[in-house]
């Protein structure tokens, strides 16, 4: 006979000893990461079914949300066009019928069988004498399942072997027994001040709410708590960076400013000047700058970063510029070399394709102070530390180790291009390079406002929205297959006039699972067909660095007229004469990514032309493509992409090193994000290390959830 293990905390009771579970179900529940009583309590429903609106078919009203229980009578899946489908399920309730429709979701066909009981929820519409629901929510019911009316039912994530009714019974039993034992992380005074429900009142209402108002109050409590703890962590980190670390003060002056700006053969825009002034003010203090520079495609961020690097060099310090790809790193070197050819600034390159001798020469020059600016990729610069490293030194795995290895003689500034390609852990580790460098990160992917307050909440932000004068317009078209001949005629005409172009495909090679053109196949088809006689080359992520650079150099010099590529050209590639782009499989790209790709053309004196071919299978994909053709504003598109796809698809939280949010939704909960941020900053300003005993549990939650990711282990 199994005996419960001894524990001083009832919330740590193993699942098999909880009411209604036992060893067999415990194994199933473990697949849902439910091991102890506390895991069940905070296993919030993924959705709810409002059974207070349970209706018979005869009681349905046009457009009014309702739930209907019945039996599946017929299931019909048919094709309604190329790549499009319609799934129809006929539900019988007594002598009445309800038809349910799902467009372009053929995978649902296997879930519905005739004779199976089902619960449907949605907005009904009357079509002739029959009621219909389009894309309703559904729940398959066992023969012995009750359909309780007048209640809001939780819908939990399941695993094979457990149905929704069983899960509801298990959850209800655990919540009833253990929710009263959960201690609140907030002091009573804090709850009253912020009008938050106590946790023991909120927990039961999350799992089996009395009504919609109670559910909203409970949800608000936990959304606020999750966001407040995140904002506390970010506020603590920012306070520590400001008060516990010292960087070299690198102030600007009228003389230094004039020496730097005279190297630019153009006038700075107002927004560039504002960003430069903000950065210069930061670098002038003995506090490490921790700033994000975001700007739309082609807004001139590189010039601002160049100013920052030259400000460091003017004070005898070195600067490091890290890029996400070797192609972009080499391009940065070319841009800097051209812009600074009249200066004495010494520039070095450190990338994976260098020979051992070239790498050693660069490292030696860096350590001797004979290089002012080092440009490299973050993934391969562990070579910085490997050169001349002690025999017993730990293995090295990235830029943080490179900087910590002391290979820079006088490091004053680190610039990272494409911030979202780097995680919080890497960003944090950069600070450990002896005396702290100033730290500037750039992104050409505009970041939605709530994202800057959360995922990037430890950074100050400078924004450049407008492009410099002279930027040419980009014409964007969404085309169908029948219009290909017309587009390729135009494409060839522009090539004949001396322009160059890109053809973007979503995959390197075809797979059976995904119908998308590969680079190589597209290249061969174009060489035999629409672009016969033209000079084409391929570029994709599986090529070696030397092969990539060779293809890009040939394209830059005009030896290649058309580059057939994956989205590897998305970030930063700058060929002014390339004004044409064709994107295949446009529905497979995110909105922000499409905008980045568009930014590769019209970087010179000629207007750009982009044609997207797509086969959207969802309403969301169609809205994304429509928005892309309608707007050239990256900030507007970023907000829309954020609403359509959520933060994970824009900047996956794992890239940041932060654990994912469990209940909060950054696109939905904007007001609570702002409230939590303001409250957290006020709290940390008054008590930076949360020493007040009333906040002991909050502090513990901060350390458990974000301590490792944000290096907060020694707070207090």
List the keywords.
single chain, 716 residues, alpha/beta, OB fold (Dihydrolipoamide Acetyltransferase, E2P), Rossmann fold, 4 domains, seven-stranded mixed β-sheet, seven-stranded parallel β-sheet, 25 helices, 37% helix, globular
Oligomer: single chain
Give a short account of the largest sheet: 7 strands, mixed
Give the uncertain stretches in residue-range form. 379-402, 423-429, 512-516, 649-655
Looking across the biggest beta sheet, what order are the strands in? Answer: 6-7-4-3-2-5-8
State the end-to-end CA separation. Answer: 46 Å
Provide the number of structural domains.
Answer: 4
In words, what does this structure look like?
- This protein is an alpha/beta fold and 716 residues long.
- The protein starts with 21 loop residues before the first helix and ends in a 10-residue tail after the last helix.
- Helix content is 37%, strand content 18%.
- The protein folds into 4 domains: 1-46 and 167-180, no CATH class; 48-155, OB fold (Dihydrolipoamide Acetyltransferase, E2P) (Beta Barrel), CATH 2.40.50; 254-464, P-loop containing nucleotide triphosphate hydrolases (Rossmann fold, 3-Layer(aba) Sandwich), CATH 3.40.50.300; 474-631, 3-Layer(aba) Sandwich (Rossmann fold).
- The radius of gyration is 29 Å and the shape is globular.
- The chain contains 25 helices and 22 strands.
- The model is unreliable at 379-402, 423-429, 512-516 and 649-655 (pLDDT under 50).
- The strands form 4 sheets. The chain has a 7-stranded mixed beta sheet with strand order 6-7-4-3-2-5-8, with no helix packed on it. Strands 12-13-11-14-15-10-16 form a 7-stranded parallel beta sheet, sandwiched between helices.
């Amino acid at each position: 006979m199994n005996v419960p293990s001894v524990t001083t905390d009832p919330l740590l009771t193993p699942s098999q000893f909880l009411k209604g579970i036992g060893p067999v179900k415990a194994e199933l529940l473990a697949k849902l990461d439910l091991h102890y009583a506390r895991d069940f309590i905070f296993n919030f429903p993924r959705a709810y079914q409002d059974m207070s609106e349970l209706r018979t078919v005869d009681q349905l009203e046009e457009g009014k949300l309702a739930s209907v229980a019945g039996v599946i009578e017929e299931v019909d899946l048919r094709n309604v066009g190329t790549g499009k489908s319609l799934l129809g399920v006929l539900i019988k309730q007594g002598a009445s019928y309800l038809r349910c429709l799902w467009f372009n979701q053929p995978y649902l066909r296997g879930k519905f069988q005739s004779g199976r009981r089902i619960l449907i929820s949605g907005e009904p519409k009357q079509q002739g004498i029959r009621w219909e629901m389009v894309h309703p929510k559904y729940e398959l019911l066992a023969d012995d399942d009750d359909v309780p009316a007048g209640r809001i039912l939780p819908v939990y994530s399941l695993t094979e072997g457990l149905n929704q009714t069983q899960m509801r019974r298990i959850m209800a039993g655990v919540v009833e027994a253990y929710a009263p034992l959960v201690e609140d992380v907030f002091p009573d005074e804090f709850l009253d001040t912020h009008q938050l429900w106590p946790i023991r009142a909120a927990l039961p209402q999350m799992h089996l709410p009395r009504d919609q108002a109670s559910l909203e109050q409970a949800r608000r409590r936990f959304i606020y708590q999750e966001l407040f703890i995140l904002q506390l962590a970010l506020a603590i980190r920012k306070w520590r960076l400001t008060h516990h670390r010292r960087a070299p003060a690198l102030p600007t002056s009228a003389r230094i400013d004039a020496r730097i700006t005279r190297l630019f053969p153009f006038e700075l825009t107002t927004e560039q000047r504002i960003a430069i002034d903000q950065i210069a003010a930061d670098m002038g203090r003995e506090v490490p700058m921790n700033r994000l520079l975001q700007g739309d495609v082609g807004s001139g961020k590189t010039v601002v970063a160049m100013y920052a690097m030259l400000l460091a060099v003017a004070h005898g310090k070195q600067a490091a510029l890290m890029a996400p790809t070797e192609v972009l790193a080499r391009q940065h070197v070319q841009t800097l070399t051209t812009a600074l050819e009249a200066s004495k600034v010494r520039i070095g390159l450190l990338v994976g394709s260098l020979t051992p001798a070239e790498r050693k020469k660069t490292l030696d020059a860096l350590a001797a102070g004979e290089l002012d600016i080092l440009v490299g990729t973050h993934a391969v610069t562990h070579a910085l530390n490997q050169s001349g490293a002690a025999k017993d030194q730990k293995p090295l795995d990235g830029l943080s180790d490179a900087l910590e290895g002391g290979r820079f003689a006088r490091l004053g500034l680190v610039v990272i291009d494409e911030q979202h390609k780097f995680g919080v852990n890497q960003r944090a580790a950069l600070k450990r390079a002896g005396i702290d460098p100033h730290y500037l990160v750039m992104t050409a992917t505009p970041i939605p406002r709530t994202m800057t307050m959360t995922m990037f909440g430890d950074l100050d932000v400078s924004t450049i929205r407008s492009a410099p004068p002279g930027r040419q317009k980009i014409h964007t078209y969404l085309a169908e297959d029948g219009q290909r001949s017309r587009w390729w005629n135009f494409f060839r005409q522009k090539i004949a006039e001396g322009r160059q172009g890109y053809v973007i495909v979503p995959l390197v090679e075809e797979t059976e699972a995904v119908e998308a053109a590969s680079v190589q196949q597209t290249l061969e088809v174009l060489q035999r067909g629409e672009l016969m006689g033209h000079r084409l080359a391929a570029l994709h992520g599986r090529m070696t660095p030397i092969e990539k650079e060779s293809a890009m150099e040939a394209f830059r010099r005009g030896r290649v007229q058309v580059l057939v590529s994956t989205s590897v050209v998305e970030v930063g590639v700058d060929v002014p004469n390339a004004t044409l782009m064709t994107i295949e499989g446009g529905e497979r790209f995110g909105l922000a990514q499409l905008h980045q790709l568009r930014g590769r053309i019209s970087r010179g004196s000629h207007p750009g032309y982009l044609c997207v071919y797509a086969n959207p299978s969802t309403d969301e994909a169609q809205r994304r493509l429509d928005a892309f053709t309608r707007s050239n504003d990256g900030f507007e598109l970023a907000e829309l992409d954020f609403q359509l796809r959520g933060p994970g698809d824009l900047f996956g939280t794992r890239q940041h090193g932060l654990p994912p949010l469990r209940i909060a939704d950054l696109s939905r909960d904007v007001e609570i994000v702002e409230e939590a941020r303001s409250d957290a900053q006020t709290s940390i300003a008054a008590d930076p290390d949360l020493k007040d005993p009333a906040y002991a549990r909050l502090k513990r939650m901060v350390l458990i959830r974000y301590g490792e990711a944000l290096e907060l282990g020694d707070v207090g």
